# Entry
Amino acid sequence: MNKRKRREPMVIAFKDPKRVREEIACIESRLAEIGPDGDCAYENAMIRQFEKQVEMRRVWLESEFQAAYNG
# Structure
């Protein structure tokens, strides 16, 4: 029996604030292309995923700012 190995969850390690801001801009650009309402379930799922990615990056940037300000 051929068992397939489960994929490990992707770990995202942000290190460079400039790079993270560029990623946010890229994702937001793609969101603007899609529009506020997707044409199909696939686009709606993409919108939700992109919004989560942007939020995750903004939270990281805020924590970096706070660490730099308080540190």
